[in-house]
Design brief:
Layout lengths: L2 E5 L2 E4 L4 E8 L7 E7 L6 E6 L5 E3 L7 E6 L4 E6 L8 E8 L9 H5 L7 E3 L3 E6 L1
Parallel strand pairs: 2-11
Antiparallel strand pairs: 1-3, 3-8, 4-5, 4-9, 5-6, 7-8, 9-10, 9-11
């Protein structure tokens, strides 16, 4: 059965760091476009970072240079290392895996559209709260 277990969320002060983890089970993890999206109350879902099976990465402009996405295929785990956190980063963070079609590249928009795709999985979310 497909199972995604997220951890690492919490409350920190501005300037702090957190490392989010997502352990994936039950599907061909290494073949999927992987990433994270977040959503704050009364705001639209926002793609944060994407990592393709080829190792290419894409970051939302506001997190570039502060966040790093990585994966450990041996452990079937996806990570998001976050540093220099600010209140704008507050929100519910979700790990997501989706299969690209044809020559489609792994991207933030692909991950955000995961719920509408036939081969996609996402976690239950982990809350990140950053205080000023």
């Amino acid at each position: 059965q497909v199972e995604l277990v997220e951890s690492g969320g919490g409350s920190v002060q501005a300037g702090g760091s957190l490392r989010l983890s997502c352990a994936a089970r039950g599907f061909s993890y290494a073949t999927y476009c992987a990433g994270w999206f977040r959503q704050a109350p009364e705001k639209e879902r926002e793609g944060v970072a994407a990592l393709g099976s080829d190792g290419n990465t894409v970051y939302e402009d506001s997190v570039m240079g502060r966040f790093t996405i990585s994966r450990d295929n041996a452990e079937n785990t996806l990570y998001l290392q976050m540093s220099g956190l600010n209140p704008e980063d507050t929100g519910m963070y979700y790990c997501v895996f989706a299969r690209a079609s044809g020559r489609e590249r792994c991207s933030l928009s692909l991950l955000i559209s995961a719920p509408a795709r036939p081969h996609a999985y996402w976690g239950r979310g982990t809350q990140v709260t950053v205080s000023s």
